[in-house]
């Protein structure tokens, strides 16, 4: 475990999965981050790489070969190496291995960083293509926040019309355009799995007098998710990528939302979390 802090925040991160473990303000003992109760969901804030979502039949093809990979990829179940650590920041690294090449035939370096800047957490992604061919990948976040269901809760958005996607048993399908402003948070929202939107830049989750503000400008997709079974958490998930569409041909080069990284090229992105 690695603890970083400043005069506003104290954050704990695990090297396994480079996953957030705790988010607290320094002047309060309130825990903002879901603590991974396996009775509901054992994870807390997994990184999604090198795919986001589920492949059809958990399989993709590349160069006439088939590869098996489970939902959201393997980074969340990998041990990262800490390469930089200071009072208010930490940086982790994952590199391809013989094990990863059996699932995903590309060599890479993946960096995941956490930095406290005043009252918010900056989460950074850096992907380096170390292969001798173009590397297709997706990357995304899946942080879960505590949801006290005895208090009113809602999502608020900058008012705009955005496209949506729907999750079906056969894959992702296009949904209707929706006008977002303020959405009361109820379990019924997630009856059909995650809500997926295109073109959002930020959202605020309020739960009584506390909450989370996230800014993810530049991420093409955002998922909102919880288990519709009494689970006391909600996930806000900015993504570069999406699960397979129901009519996808399973060729990873044709998969919606994939980033094609040229030889030696570097991809970088970040989002922020602000406890309120």
Describe the overall structure.
With 276 residues, this protein is an all-beta fold. It has one domain: Distorted Sandwich (Beta-galactosidase, Chain A, domain 5), CATH 2.70.98.10. The protein has one helix and 23 strands. The chain has one helix spanning 98-103, and strands at residues 2-5, 9-13, 20-25, 47-48, 59-62, 65-68, 81-86, 89-95, 108-117, 120-129, 135-137, 139-141, 144-146, 153-168, 171-174, 178-184, 195-198, 202-207, 210-215, 221-225, 233-240, 259-261, 266-275. It has a 16-stranded antiparallel sheet that branches. A three-stranded antiparallel sheet has the order 1-2-3, with no helix packed on it. A two-stranded antiparallel ribbon has the order 5-6. A hairpin with a 6-residue loop joins strand 2 (9-13) and strand 3 (20-25). The protein is globular, with a radius of gyration of 18 Å.
TL;DR?
The protein has one helix at 98-103, and strands spanning 2-5, 9-13, 20-25, 47-48, 59-62, 65-68, 81-86, 89-95, 108-117, 120-129, 135-137, 139-141, 144-146, 153-168, 171-174, 178-184, 195-198, 202-207, 210-215, 221-225, 233-240, 259-261, 266-275. It is an all-beta fold. The longest helix has 6 residues, at 98-103.
